[in-house]
Amino acid sequence: MSTHPRPHTSEEAAMSAEPAIFPAVRRERTLTAPPRAVYRAWLDPGILCRWLAPGDLESVRAEVDERVGGRYRIWQPRAGRPIGGFDAQLLELVPDRRIVWRWGFVGPDPEAGPAFDSVLTVTLSETPDGGTHMVVLHEHLDALAAAMPEVACRISGGWDKCLDRLPAAVAAARTVVKP
Question: Which of 8, 9, 87, 128 is the most exposed place for a label (fewest CB within 10 A)?
Answer without folding.
Answer: 128
